[in-house]
Amino acid sequence: MKKFMAMLLALVMALSLVACGQKADDTAKDDANTDNTDDSLVVLENVVDWGETEPYRVLVQKGDPKGLLEGINKAIAELTANDGALIKEIEDKVASQDTYMPDAVSSDLAAETTDDTAASDKPVLVMGTSPDYPPYEFFADAAMTEYAGIDVEVAKYIAESMGMTLQIESMNFDNLVTSLSNGDFDVVLAACEYTEERAKACDFSDPYYTDLPPVILVKAANADKYKTVDDINQASVIIGAQKNTTKAMAAADMFPEAANGMVLESLVPTLVTELKNGTIDLLVLDEAGSAEELEMVDVGQLKKAVLERPAGCECVLTAHTPPQWMLDAADYSTEMKCHRHPYQKGIKARKGIEY
């Protein structure tokens, strides 16, 4: 998994909208100060220990009636061999693509059909996904006809390895497992981890990708309100998460007092908007590298904060798929792969060591 290192991520993100609200005259400045419209977001750090994360897997129908798992696992073994060299190539490709997401995802979105698919004599592998979650699944064109992302590239590799032609169909994330069970898809790739609930309805492949633990996003102006887990675990705190994801489950388990009031949406961009306008207080999401991809920060201001930082200020940033400008600016970059971790022995994060 690619990690691009740089320090003070929260500070950089907070700086992204520093210039917002400045006016030409003193009266306007006073008005701006009175009416706080700063909706910049930061990561809430060193508050929650989420424990170990589950890797992503391909979902197939329960009992694997089409006999797909053997071929899928063979392809995954190739993808993850040699320290995940092919996965790293996929990450690099995805990092270079433009990112577009629909305002809504439904089962009515047309499947991706190409001339090659229509003319091919190969059997078709139908993949279900929800293209609203970069860098895993999204569109690479403004017309939203070209599916892209880590999961899409993994599915293409699997289909080719199995001598099949890939067909992609879109659906809301929360309906994917049900539709898979109904036979609408052959496989689901949508950043899905193993859960006992999902295991009742489908079978899982070997792991093909391991994500980081969740992060919590909060408006910068409210960050000081949440110093401990108890500050968050209140019935009055409204937490947002993507519906039917392990991130939502993790939030409900970690914050049971706030769980009944959780806001669950199918689309991550919807949750970001709700966080900015105050509908929710906190957003539980994947790692902070998604912030730029989801336009949670002003990219121009982010670049300026990094590239024009004061002398002696060191920066470390992490991302699944860092944009090219970050790579170009780096004095060094590191791709991290876990070979051994204290979590494997049941040792949780320790203050002063892991955080």
The averaged pLDDT comes out at 78
Give the strand line-up of the largest sheet: 2-12-15-13-14
- Low-pLDDT runs: 1-35
Q: Compute the number of helices.
A: 14
**Quaternary organisation of the protein chains:** single chain
What percent of residues are in strands?
Answer: 5-15%
Give the radius of gyration: 21 Å
Largest sheet: 5 strands, mixed
SS class: alpha/beta
Q: What gross morphology would you assign?
A: globular
Roughly what percent helix? Answer: 25-40%
**What's the β-strand tally?**
16
- Give the distance, in angstroms, between the N- and C-terminal Cα atoms: 20 Å
String of helices and strands:
EHHEEEHHEEEHEHEHEEEHEHHEHEHHHE
Overview of the molecule:
It is a single chain. It contains 14 helices and 16 strands. β6 (138-139) and β7 form a beta hairpin. The strands form 5 sheets. A 5-stranded mixed β-sheet has the order 2-12-15-13-14, with helices on both faces. α3 crosses α5 (150-161). With 355 residues, it is of the alpha/beta class. The chain is globular, with a radius of gyration of 21 Å. The longest helix is centred in the first third of the chain and has 27 residues, at 69-95. The two termini are 20 Å apart.
